[in-house]
Specification:
The structure holds 2 protein chains of 2 kinds. Chain A has 11 helices and 12 strands. Chain A is α/β, with parallel strands linked by helices. Chain A has a domain of 158 residues: Rossmann fold (3-Layer(aba) Sandwich). Chain A has an 8-stranded mixed beta sheet with strand order 6-7-8-3-9-10-12-11, sandwiched between helices. A 4-stranded antiparallel beta sheet of chain A has the order 2-1-4-5, with helices on one face. Chain B is of the alpha/beta class. Among the domains of chain B are: 71 residues, no CATH class; 98 residues, no CATH class. Classes of the chains: A alpha/beta, B alpha/beta. At the A-B interface, helix 7, helix 8, helix 9 and helix 10 of A face helix 8, helix 9, helix 10 and helix 11 of B.
Chain lengths: 333, 330
């Protein structure tokens, strides 16, 4: 396909656990947190791909692998067909410019000792986006783009509220005119009313600037609102992947189904009193055998405990990794 | 109508800081009825947590509380320190947002539960041991006998929250104060804890005051709710009434800010601006700088919380216009 801009093929990432000298001398097996266990995704130009999952599912690690803040242990991340792990020098710098990341925490991702003008001017000059004389005007444009007042340029990050800081982060990412934005929990640290402002801004900017967005979040309502397609992750694997509407209307994986039923809807008439998923996330150090979800799955069979289900097509570009062909009708309407 | 279990009247909490007096809670009044879950909703800085802590005077030194908190015929605000210690953690228990910081990291769970049993019940030591095991069973911690001797760091986030609930239940409380108990948890675990709280309410008949910023959680658990903004209650009502027909522009905006199904990739009805800091609460209606319904009167005169029936009250000059504008849910 020609319109795939960024893709991953079977990428894995392990983070070794620090071990004592004694246990190493004893020759004990080195433990590692298996953050990503073979993730393959395609990101299509101009779309928003939502990546959703609970804490520890590897969604942030995946985001960082996409911009090469982490190198993958195995598998490849392809940007326009080129393995980003092989990029060097100017080619890597161009990649960095074209694929930008916005971070979750607006308090730690901005240098507290630089004014907004310095933050933006640094990005503009590192990538030689504009001749020196035009940098000033460009900063004004960028602030207007994210709807911050022009006098914001000479203030320091601590003078802004959380929502305004996230706008500065967006302005910094946009200053280098990227094609892909990877947003890791962009609005999670913000109050609800401010979240909506930033979400509206992101939707508007995406249309205006033809951006491709990878939106990583744990909030299903947000991901549903913003994404064209969604990938649901569990323990470092994509368990379900497809168009937003079909995933939310008819989930094909028991985990997605549980996640959807657990997320409280903002409608008091749709209350349920059944617990959506039993138990808790297994340790990512000792992954369960077979299907990773079988320890919590209400539908687990013997086969699930031994055989890893592959992502299989379910029609309409919808894929799910479950041995069952269809989920049984829900107990609760 | 049944008599309220807890009646809060004109509660105000002030903090005396070097930079002046900050009023975190301003003339807040509400009732909690037996067996109900009452939700206090607001964004950060709205005073919802301080309100909750003021009920049992669980505030840092230097804070002053005015008003009346009526509990079983007694005013908790004017009560002596010794007397309120019997109520706090006894008839009224509290659970917190961060189970890791609320639990003592150097004591096993058993000690933390029996501590509370010793203070608030007259069980002997074998009775306390049995009750501690029973409490872990009630809150759904498997393998209770072994887990009692474990420390908080050996528990997962959801299990820690369950352990904290077990400690709170040790004294057979009539009222449970819950301060964002599920905010730090993942959604499937949150769902488990919310269902646990609902089951406990049904089985033990206790009331719950539930502080949260998540309207989804309110919709899923609460019976009645109060929305707070800048230290004041701006709207109260049954959860169904408030969600169906919000009468305060803030409530309407808050509901509109949450993405719903069926409106994917459209602009959300957001609220411009940010919530005010306590040191700079606007004159008149505190919400007027962010309000699309605001007129001159909103800038000059603060609206009172007007009762509109037994279960409904709103503090807005233009509540009719807000109601007419409709809920995003309707």
């Amino acid at each position: 396909m020609t319109n795939v801009i960024l893709s991953t093929t079977d990428i894995s990432k392990r983070f070794p656990v620090t071990q004592s000298v004694l246990s190493r001398l004893r020759g004990q097996h080195r433990l590692a947190v298996n953050a990503l266990n073979g993730v393959s995704l395609d990101i299509i130009k101009g779309e928003t791909l939502g990546i959703v999952g609970e804490s520890g599912c590897g969604k942030s690690t995946l985001a960082r692998c996409l911009v090469r803040l982490h190198d993958c242990d195995s598998g490849k991340v392809l940007f326009e067909g080129t393995d980003i792990g092989t990029l060097n020098g100017p080619a890597r710098r161009t990649f960095n410019r074209r694929v930008q990341m916005i971070f979750q925490d607006p308090y730690s991702s901005l240098n507290p000792r630089m004014t907004v003008r310095q933050i933006l001017a640094e990005a503009l000059s590192v990538h030689s986006m504009r001749p020196k004389a035009q940098i000033e005007t460009r900063i004004g444009e960028l602030l207007g783009l994210v709807r911050l007042p022009p006098d914001a340029a000479d203030k320091y990050p601590h003078e802004f509220s959380g929502g305004q800081r996230q706008r500065i982060g967006i302005a910094r990412a946009l200053s280098v005119e990227p094609e892909v934005l990877v947003a890791d929990e962009l609005v999670s640290a913000l109050d609800v009313s401010v979240q909506a402002q930033v979400v509206n801004l992101l939707l508007e900017l995406q249309d205006r600037l033809n951006l491709t967005v990878v939106f990583v979040a744990h909030d299903l309502r947000l991901v549903r609102h913003i994404s064209h397609r969604v990938a649901v992750m569990y323990l470092g694997k994509v368990v379900e992947y497809g168009p937003t509407s079909s995933i939310f209307a008819a989930p094909q994986h028991p985990y997605t189904d549980a996640l959807l039923r657990a997320a409280p809807e903002v409608d008091p008439s749709r209350r349920t009193r059944t617990v959506a998923a039993r138990g808790e996330l297994p340790s990512p150090i000792n992954l369960p055998k077979g299907c990773l979800f079988h320890t919590r799955c209400p539908l687990a069979m013997d086969r699930c405990r031994t055989e890893i289900p592959a992502l299989r097509p379910r029609g309409d570009g919808h894929l799910a990794a479950c041995h069952l062909d269809t989920l049984p009708a829900k107990a609760t309407p | 109508m049944t008599a309220p279990l807890l009646s809060v009247q004109k509660l105000s909490t002030r903090f005396h800081t070097p930079r002046g007096v900050l009023t975190a809670v301003n003339e807040v009044s509400f009732d909690v009825r037996p067996g109900e879950i009452f939700g206090l909703v607001g964004e950060s800085g709205s005073g919802k947590s301080v309100t909750l802590r003021s009920l049992t005077r669980l505030l840092p030194y230097g804070a002053t509380i005015d008003g009346v908190v009526l509990w079983q015929g007694q005013d908790l605000v004017g009560m002596s320190d010794t007397a309120i210690r019997k109520v706090r953690g006894g008839q009224i228990s509290m659970i917190f947002q961060e189970p890791m910081t609320a639990l003592n990291p150097v004591l096993p769970i058993r000690v933390q539960i029996t501590e509370n049993l010793k203070a608030h019940t007259d069980l002997d030591s074998s009775g306390r041991a049995a009750r501690a095991r029973e409490l872990l069973d009630i809150v759904g911690i498997p393998d209770a006998a072994r887990r009692l001797d474990e420390y908080p760091h050996q528990f997962s986030g959801g299990m820690r929250q369950r352990a904290m609930i077990a400690i709170a239940l040790a004294s057979n409380p009539k009222l449970l104060l819950a301060d964002e108990p599920t905010t730090a948890l993942d959604v499937t675990i949150q769902d488990q804890i919310l269902n646990l709280l609902l089951d406990l309410r049904d089985d033990l008949g206790m009331s719950v005051v539930f502080v949260t910023h998540d309207l989804g959680v309110v919709a899923a658990t609460c019976d009645r709710m109060a929305v707070m903004y800048a230290g004041r209650i701006v709207e109260t009502g049954t959860v169904t009434d408030v969600f169906r027909g919000p009468m305060h522009a803030y409530t309407r905006g808050l509901l509109g800010s949450i993405p719903r199904s069926g409106t994917e990739r459209s602009m959300l009805l957001s609220i411009e601006g940010t919530p005010p800091g306590l040191a700079s609460i606007p004159n008149g209606c505190a919400f007027h700088p962010r309000c699309v319904f605001a007129s001159d009167i909103c800038r000059e005169k603060r609206p009172d919380l007007r009762p509109l029936g037994p279960d409904r009250a709103v503090a807005c000059h233009h509540s009719d216009a807000v109601l007419a504008a409709g809920s995003v849910l309707a």
